[in-house]
Amino acid sequence: MSAINYKQIDAELAHIATVLKAPRIRSTYHDTAEQARDGGWTYEEYLAAVLSVEASARQASGAQARIKRAGFPHIKTIEDFDFMVQPAIDRAKIARLETSAWIAQGCNVIFLGPPGTGKTHLAIGLGVIAARHGHRVLFDTAAGWVQQLTHAHSTGSLPKLLAKLGRYDLIIVDEVGYIPIEAEAANLFFQLVSTRYEKASLIMTSNLPFSRWGECFGDATIAAAMIDRIVHHAEIFTHKGNSFRITGHEDILPSIAAEREHQIN
Question: CA angle at residue 183 from 159 to 189, to 5 degrees?
Fold first, then answer.
C-alpha cells in the first residue's frame, strides 16, 4: 500500500476551498483532521465539522450584511432595553416575537406611545433579530417612506418600487404622526400598507393613538382603511410615561407642556 501523500492532499483541499470560495474550510480542515484522527471520528463526523465552520461563518456574515442593508439609524438590541423603566411592555410577549415566527405569517407589530419611551429601540431590536434569522429588512421613518413613494409616483415607477418592497420580509415605519402627511401622499402610503396585507410584515411606531391617525394622514377614511389592515394580524404595545431622554431633567417638563399648548392654540 502506497504512503499517503499529505502534502498533495493538502494542496488539493486548499485548491477546492479556493474554488468554492470557502476560506474557513481552507484555514480549519487540517487542524480538524488532526482532531478527527485522534478522536476516531467517522468520515461523516469530520465532514460535518469542517462544513459547519464555513456555514456558521457565512450565516454570521450574511446577517451582518442584512443588518447593514436594512438602513437602521443605529443598532439597538432587545437585551439593552430596560423593561423595568417601561413596565407597560410585556417582556414575555416581546420574547415570543424574538423567534421571528410572526414574520413568516405576515403579521405586524405596532408600538404606540409618547416620544422617547423606547418604541424605536424595540422596533430596531426586533428588526436586527429578524435580519439575523435570515429575513430581509428595511427601516425608515414615515416621512422617509412617504418621500420614497412620492418620488416613485412622480417618476412613474411606483409599481416597480412597491414590487421591490414586496420582496422584503419586514419593513419598519418609524415615527408615524410626527409630521402631517398630505392626502395624496397618504394614499400612496396606503398602497404600501395594502400591498403587504397578509403577505409581508410591518413594524410601526407612532406617538399618536389610532383614534388620531386621521389627523396625521389628513383623511379619516384612508386612515381607517389603513388601520383596519394593519391591526388585523398585529401585536400592539402601548408605551407609557415620560421620555427616557428627559429622565433626570423633569424640571423642564412644564415648559415643554406649555410650548405644546402654545403650538396647538
Answer: 35
